[in-house]
Amino acid sequence: MADTKERDPKQAQADQGEAPQGQELKPADVAPAEAPAAPQPKQKEKQKEKQKEKQKDKQKGKKPAEGKPAPAEPEGPPPEPAPPPRLHEYYVQRVRPKLTQQFGLANPHEIPKLVKIVLNVGMGDASKNPKALESAVAELAAITGQQPVVTRAKKAIANFNLREGMPVGCSVTLRAARMFEFLDRFITIAVPRMRDFRGLPTDSFDGRGNYTIGIKEQMIFPEIDYDKVEKIHGMDITFVTSAGRDDTALALLRELGMPFRGEAPVAVA
Q1: Mean pLDDT along residues 72-86
Q2: Residue 174 in 3-state DSSP?
Q3: DSSP 3-state of 144
Q4: Which of 66, 91, 171, 258 has the fewest beta carbons closer than 10 A?
Q5: What residues have CB less than 8 Å from 162, skipping those under 6 apart?
Q6: How far is Cα 236 from Cα 121, in angstroms, rounded to an integer?
Q7: The domain 98-104+113-255 belongs to what CATH superfamily?
Q8: H or E element, residue 211
């Protein structure tokens, strides 16, 4: 029993890798220390690919995709703002003072002004002939310089084979600069090209200062190409004013150069 007890500490020292008493450890007996883990080959390949992508982006003059791209700076000087419409300047300089004196308006907000112009094209066979509706939309966009909106039926009517939501035409609403530019082209170019034109009627007001006229052909506008017209159609044009009365609205449109029947039109300088 005494022998086994004496051997136990030696075996414990041997198991722990320590040299027994009175002996030195040989280099072969010592366990090598754990070396740091080397990077995996896949990680090296990924790092190399990222470096190549960065070099390519630098050569192209672009920033790496990791950060947010900076907004591109415009080349050259900034674009000049568009000049104001000719008819708008004429309204501010000539028409407003004249209407103020004519009707004795003390408040400048009472002076009538043009709010918007609405062009509406109605096509009853739009559901049966979709190409005609597409051509009408393209023509109205060329006339006004603004994309029209396709109007749809609000309720179903069995006698007309009409269901709710079916396309029935298109319309455009013009405001601000585009409104004055269209009015200028309409008065100076389109109206004189009407057949047998003898002036616009003065009884087409609705009692609230809004004026509506109907046009039989869209060919009076110079933007329409005769060769590309598939079907001749008319349109309704409504001039919405802030007058609230027909007499003030008539005076406003007359001063803007609208040629009414039996009157000499005002020359817009």
Answers
A1: 76
A2: strand
A3: helix
A4: 66
A5: 127, 153, 156, 168
A6: 7
A7: Ribosomal protein L5 (3.30.1440.10)
A8: strand 211-215
